[in-house]
Amino acid sequence: MTAFELLGGEATVRALVDRFYDLMDLEPQFAGIRALHPNTLDSSRDKLFWFLCGWLGGPNHYIDRFGHPRLRARHLPFPIGESERNQWLACMGLAMQDESLPEPLQERLMQAFFGTADWMRNV
């Protein structure tokens, strides 16, 4: 099964993304990555949801709308170092816990998220 299927599909991915951005918006420990986003997070929520659906093995909503994600290129304008990487991972870790994802799935996803988040570093 894909991670998308193990999560339970789009509804769970949407809930995870929404919790991620809620935490980013509310928790002071994520102020560094929050500052890299626009004032309104609606577009960011949609883009991460669309991206994660495909990245997790589900529908390619992001590619259908925008083409290849080119993640690193799209994030180059933003200073992303170890601190930003770690904040992003911590925020996603809390979101997965809050959404009660099974522990083995959380571990699997955190390993995959770490690889991608680490690759995004540019400072």
UniProtKB/TrEMBL annotation:
Superkingdom of the organism of origin: Bacteria
Keywords tagged on the record: Heme, Iron, Metal-binding, Transport
Keyword Nucleotidyltransferase among record annotations: no
Presence of keyword Iron: yes
Pfam families: Bac_globin
InterPro entries membership: GlbO/GLB3-like, Globin-like_sf, Globin/Proto, Hemoglobin_trunc
Family label: Belongs to the truncated hemoglobin family. Group II subfamily.
Protein name: Group II truncated hemoglobin
Organism, as annotated: Piscinibacterium candidicorallinum
